[in-house]
Automatic annotation (TrEMBL), chain A:
Protein's name in the database: Glutamyl-tRNA(Gln) amidotransferase subunit C, mitochondrial
Organism per entry: Allacma fusca
Family indicated by similarity: Belongs to the GatC family.
EC number(s) from the headed UniProt entry: 6.3.5.-
InterPro entries named among the record's database cross-references: GatC (IPR003837)
Keywords linked to the UniProt accession: ATP-binding, Ligase, Mitochondrion, Nucleotide-binding, Protein biosynthesis
TrEMBL record, chain B:
Organism encoding this protein: Allacma fusca
NCBIfam families: gatB, PRK05477.1-2, PRK05477.1-4
This enzyme's EC code(s): 6.3.5.-
Main enzyme class: ligase
Its job: Allows the formation of correctly charged Gln-tRNA(Gln) through the transamidation of misacylated Glu-tRNA(Gln) in the mitochondria. The reaction takes place in the presence of glutamine and ATP through an activated gamma-phospho-Glu-tRNA(Gln).
Organism taxonomic ancestry: Eukaryota, Metazoa, Ecdysozoa, Arthropoda, Hexapoda
Intracellular or extracellular location(s): Mitochondrion
Domain Asn/Gln amidotransferase: 370-520
Any Gene Ontology CC annotation: glutamyl-tRNA(Gln) amidotransferase complex
Assembly with partners or alone: Subunit of the heterotrimeric GatCAB amidotransferase (AdT) complex, composed of A, B and C subunits.
Record keywords, A-Z: ATP-binding, Ligase, Mitochondrion, Nucleotide-binding, Protein biosynthesis
Family the UniProt entry places it in: Belongs to the GatB/GatE family. GatB subfamily.
Protein name, entry field: Glutamyl-tRNA(Gln) amidotransferase subunit B, mitochondrial
One Gene Ontology term of the molecular function aspect: glutaminyl-tRNA synthase (glutamine-hydrolyzing) activity
Amino acid sequence: MWLNPVITSGLKIVANSYCRSYFWTTPCISNLLGRISNKFNNYSSSAISDDSDHGQNEGRLTRPVKFHPELISHLERTSLVGFGSEEAVLRLEEAIKFASVLNDVNTAGVKPMDSVLENETLYLREDETSETSRKDILSNAAITDEDYFVAPPGNIPLEASKLAQDLVKTRA
Amino acid sequence: MRLLQVLKQTPQIALGQFVRGQHYIRRKEGWESAIGLEVHAQIATKSKLFSPAPCNYGAPVNTQVALLDAATPGTLPVLNRKSVEAAVLTGLALSCRINPVSTFDRKHYFYADLPAGYQITQQRNPIASNGKLDFIVYTPSCHPAPYNHSCNIIQLQLEQDSGKSLHDEVDQRSLIDLNRAGIALMEIVFEPNLRDGEEASALIKELTLILQRIQTCDCKMEEGSLRVDANISVNRIGEPLGVRTEIKNLSSIRSIVNSIEYEVVRQIDVLEKGGEVINETRSFDSSRKETVPMRDKEMKQDYRFMPEPNLPPIRLLYEPNASSSSGPNILHVQRKMKELPEVTRNRLVKKYGIRMQSAIVIVSSPGLLEYFTAVMSFKNGESAVKVTNVLQGALMEILNINKIDYSQCPIKPKDVADIVSFLESSRINTAQSEIVLKKLLDDDARTPEQIIKEEGLEQISEDSEIEKMCLEVLKNNAKLVEGYKRNPSKFQKKILGTLDAAGKGKLNMKKASEIMLNLLKKD
């Protein structure tokens, strides 16, 4: 169920004014949004064929987002989640378009945030060993053989996504 | 904030002994190869990187696995301080810039020996970056002389190891042992500055020497403490780098050299026939000496790197007066630095006047440096060349036959020094010195002096004695004398050989040859 862009921008204005008066200042929330969106910049898969410049100049995507069938197979393979139907693909595409509003935020010169703990220092422990229990480690495994875990052989390539194959006709 | 860079002592290498940039392995006309290595060195700590499980080699299956290593829900990683210090020390030894703030990332891929489905590594902000490793390339069978080369280091990062899987083809399953899962590794990523397999092996040997010196890694490739992946590409001279293939898990120096050479030839072959090199992962079949594609890694991986949310950044101090209880201090770590092999080699050449080839052997043979220094102390630092001749000649051969190295050599350094003195004063000759060495190796409790006296191993150097022997040999070998008159060069060796045999190896052959040749001329 995608939300009407008018409503979303309306929501944004409301949110801003609400927040301004009660909790955060607008620059702060823009900062936060900017940091979140830049996270996509560092790690986004270049397979999204929408040639968005990710907020450097343009801002939100106005064209519809359309996944290439290859991207659909890729997403299914790496997440091990099947889309199930074309409707699900459409829904994800709309969600991305909806989220692209984050690109409106000017994040020039703002360092991306990794987590709320990023200003802490990592605690280091001394190099001491402690007891391990093989019995405990193996206890959750359904099948073991002579104290080894048993797994299926190697990485069997997944069968090509059926959905992606169907969509080749309509999309690519 | 300017980042730390430790200045390595620049070695004073004697000019004229090296041919800079010379490269001896010939490629097919017009082609050149570029090789970049990724080295995974297991840090020598007692416990693993993020869990307190022990990491001993050869322990029974799945007995060194903490709950975190098995990716049990509810566990969190806690970083081992000693691994951070080891990584910093290694970075300093490799002239890297140590980053005061470094972060961890997750690298996601599915494989049975990676229970969590991701590996914690440092991809964006590693602990050290931008280093350089200078090394000497010299394989006596390939290169006429040693030459210098260097390789830039892109980064050095801390990461977790994955478990081990045994593939059971018969029953179509994999057996997983998680003892190695979570062990601390330093991944050192080199730029593709190498040009052939011999340079790669020289780099690895130098890296091994350095890491063993500073004691951050025991570098036992047979035990899996050091693993090398090679990225290889070829291109026509003048063109940019070609498509690369990766050869994973090379676990011996020989396999590094052979796999690189095979792969370069294969790629040149493919390209010359008009084909394309596919960017893939291959492994090396050491029995057939070929690289083969790895079936498991056929798909191009999308690692979906993301910052590790459970681990805040590592912050390193750079304060001379900080106590050791506060965070890891780069200056404290620097105090643990030892003399690096390059500095040692140059020191040996300068102090003792030996050739660089000898210095290379002394530094790279286990135990030889200490042994050599001990012998030289008895010789007051003189006649180093003679000492190296003895150590690298007869003694090395004997030790090799008995499969021991210099650290286990039972011969006392003082005895070797005495033998060298006798050789110098011409009291004994080389053959006799070998006899003495063999006896000493067999736990002979006497000193060389005693052995020589008691076994009558002294060299015959008196002119009159020698002349007597020569005349006798000439008398008994009329045929050889005849032959000499006709063809002197051919028979000279034979006559001298007969003389040596007649003297039962006791003659001072230098003097004896002179005298013999004079006699022959007279005749």
